[in-house]
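Data availability (excerpt). All sequences and predicted token strings are deposited with the supplementary files. A representative entry, NmrA family transcriptional regulator, is shown inline so that the format can be inspected without opening the archive.
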Amino acid sequence: MIVVTGATGNVGRPLVRALAEAGERVTAVARRITEVPEGVRCCEADLFEPESLRDALEKARDLFLLTPGSFMAADGRLGGLLDIVRSSGVQRVVLLSSQGVATQRHPRDIEDAVVRSGLEWTILRPSGFYSNALRWSEEVRARRVVRAPFGDVGLPLVDPADVAEVAAVALRCTGHERRTHTLTGPEAISPRMQAAVIGAALAEPVRFAEQSRAEAREMMLRGMPEPVVETTLDILGEPTRTEQLVNPEINSLLGRRARTFAEWTSRALAAFK
Ligand SMILES: NC(=O)c1ccc[n+]([C@@H]2O[C@H](COP(=O)([O-])OP(=O)(O)OC[C@H]3O[C@@H](n4cnc5c(N)ncnc54)[C@H](OP(=O)(O)O)[C@@H]3O)[C@@H](O)[C@H]2O)c1
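Structure token line:
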């Protein structure tokens, strides 16, 4: 049995589908689940209340562990979660971390706790997700405008569906134990370029309007904890050289090139129409 936390999210949803299609027995976990692919068991549980995961972890061999932003805001404490994971008989954890750990933007204590847990582990460190563009969808639908800060700063954003495919490989195959995979998209893309890609997909112009850092901060605080907002803005505005580099690991892990923002946009187009 493979347990997938964050099962309704940008990575978790395609991961659950891919594992189920590959014939794996899967348990999907989130605080609220309304639908899962046929044959998938679902358990509602809260990562902040580790005891609530006991049922989900019964007979589990592998765990895909997502760490919500609020974990970082809580100083990354995993509490008793890893004790419960270990005592349930789980052997392997694939941890969805982030590139910000490598570049010291985010604390590394969650990764350290997993590495020290005695479980087999694989760590995934993706760059920013294409799906973050969904926060522009309402204004694109209403006014055909993208409002974002740092319009001309390019970053090698990644398709969360590619991250999910890598996670599926790490959960199903050997050779990924005690390895950390850095996952980026195929090219650096700026918010202004993303607006143009969305416009091209809609076949209508989409205007780019540059926000100040303060305006962006205010908007992001509506959905993200403050420390995560600040580090995200630091990365978006003043990325380090490492944060700007395209990493070819997705190509070698999946045997194909990483998907572009245009490919993600064509899948997500309904949200912008
Ligand atoms: N977004 C990025 O650019 C980016 C970049 C690098 C790494 N990451 C990592 O990717 C992960 C999620 O990314 P996302 O922002 O795109 O999120 P998301 O896809 O919106 O997914 C969040 C998922 O986690 C579940 N969840 C949230 N809090 C939970 C809790 N306390 N207990 C159980 N389940 C919980 C949510 O369902 P419920 O709300 O129903 O529980 C949902 O299924 C995070 O670990 C983040 O560090 C994100």
